[in-house]
Amino acid sequence: MKKKLIIVLTAIIMIVGIDGYKFANGQTGTNKTDKVIGFWEHEADSVWKYIYEFRIKNDHSLSGIVHSYFYGIKDSESPIENIKILFPEITLQFGSPSNIEQVFIIDTVKNIMEGEIELPDQSKIKMLLHKLSFSKIEGVFPRKSQVTVYSPPILRNDGILVGDLSENKKLTQGIDSAISQIINKEYGLIFSLLIAHKNQLIVEEYFYDHNINTLENQSSVTKSIVGLLIMAALEDHYIKGLDENINVYLDYDFSQAISIHDLLSMKAGMELSGEAWRDSDNRLQTLLNREIVNKPGSVFLYDNGIPNILNAIIFNATNKHADQYAYDRIFKKIGITEYNWDINKQNGFPDGSGTLQLSSRDMLKIGLLVLNKGKWAGEILIEEANINKLSERNTWLEDYKMGYGLLWWIREIEINNKSHEVIYASGSGGRFIIVIPELEVVAILTGGNYNRSEHYKSWELLKPLILGIVENRKD
User: Fold this and answer.
1) Residue (of 387, 225, 389, 244) closest to 317 by Cα position
2) What values do phi and psi take at 284, rounded to 5?
3) Which of 347, 437, 459, 444 is nearest to 391 (CA)?
4) HSE of 288 in the Cβ direction (CA atoms, 13 Å)?
5) Tens digit of each residue's pLDDT (9 = 90 or more) over 237-288
6) Contact criterion met (CB below 8 Å) for 405 and 242
């Protein structure tokens, strides 16, 4: 049986026809039994992107590694349990990172692979993957080169001021160390790291083929943007007050009044019915038809449906969908021109729970707007009082040592044995807009760390960097 298996594996290598071989880290190998037999790329849309790598191990077994560097899951390796040749196709079956079976069929004539994968949201999609040459797989790995030396941000005339730390060796050594830790995956998958101090961008690093133009999926950071839009609509007098009943703007007449403030603070009192509303032909009505299980304004329940109700209020109040209102009212004024909020739209309504895509630099602009109490380039875009409302503690979750304001989170970060309040937007995978007013710091993190225990892990990377900046940067 073992001899037969070796023959099968040899046939696979001959069919795939790779010239030479490399290890998974992109380096040429010398052990001829540990061979990469192909990389296949899946790109369903601008959110999901995976690369599957198959290689033969030293013990003559076949392994599959799933790399995800745009949205996804941590690199994970699984043994392939069944190998069967259906010339000119090869069927590969193995457990995925989420411990479900996947079957892939590789057509070695067309150099494509077909299969099915279960995504982190537990939905399944059919896949069609195309084979990559070795010259195109750099993005699978943290860096195209292993350079870990600090490089100052470039002034790009996009409204962001920059600073150069090159002459401050204490700081650059710490940043170099942080880059090395990211490359070594000590904090899971990190796609971008940006830090601004005193309104100057001083650290800007990208990994896994991400760059200044990459539109990062914001996940639930989108909710915090919706919060800013509600405040803008309030100032524009489209909304009279946060205490207004939502039935002023919606076809909604329940026995218990729900205010806009109740929605913003995640205290609407509505039953959490999972994510079934996403599949509804009328998401808004499905969300509004939910039973009231708590007195509105009394109990905090994190509800993905709420930002979609708020987006409907924005539309009915302004006659503009949230994406258009965001552009007209905030984005174009702070230089955000390239963004995407089209994924998962319904009847023109963008999904407020999380599908907005922004570059990391444009995330930084949102953070700077919050840090500067609604001011941008001397112009007041949102009144200071309304920015402050976003970070008022409407809820404190003692078990997690964090609070919730109006679609923005609040917690404390300890730096050099002193606690500092942090206002932040948080999205799954480790996407953060972090604002530390007392230290005049804004930090941006994006990543693919979907395990809940790892969600805040990257904050530990930030602590020594921020400490070094505030102690050693004098300009």
Assistant:
1) 244
2) -60, -50
3) 437
4) 21
5) 999 999 999 999 998 877 679 999 999 999 999 999 778 888 899 999 999 9
6) no
**Mutual angle of helices 306-318 and 221-235, in 10-degree steps:** 30
Domain assignment of residue 6, yes or no: yes
Is the backbone peptide bond immediately before 88 cis, with ω within 30 degrees of 0?
A: yes
Q: Choose the final residue of a domain: 140, 171, 201.
A: 140
DSSP string for residues in 117-133: EE-TTS-EEEEEEEEEP
CA dist., res. 105 & res. 168, Å (int): 54
Instruction: Using the Cα atoms of residue 72, residue 73, residue 74 and residue 79 in order, give the sign of their dihedral.
Output: negative
How confident is the model over 17-37, as a mean pLDDT? 38
Q: How far apart are the two ends of the chain, measured CA to CA in Å?
A: 70
Q: Is the predicted pLDDT of residue 323 greater than 60, yes or no?
A: yes
- Tokens coding 344: 């998962």
Question: Do 246 and 128 share a structural domain?
Answer: no
Residues 6+ away with beta carbon under 8 Å from 453: none
Token reading at 194: 């940006």
Q: Which two tokens stand for residue 441?
A: 């710091």
For residues 372 and 14, what is the distance between their CA atoms, to the nearest angstrom? Answer: 61
Residues making up the chain, counted from first to last:
475
For 307, phi then psi, to 5°, come to -60, -25
DSSP H helices, 319-416, are: 322-329, 360-371, 384-390
Residue type (1 letter), 153: P
399 has pLDDT over 60? yes
pTM, to two decimals: 0.76
Q: What is the dihedral of CA 269, 273, 275, 280, to 10 degrees?
A: -100
The answer to whether 348 touches 320, Cβ cutoff 8 Å, is: no
Q: What angle do CA 430, 27, 360 make, to 5 degrees?
A: 25
Per DSSP, what are the bridge partners of residue 456?
none
With residue 42 as reference, give the H or E element that holds it: strand 35-43
Domain range for 377 is 216-472
What domain count does the chain have? 2
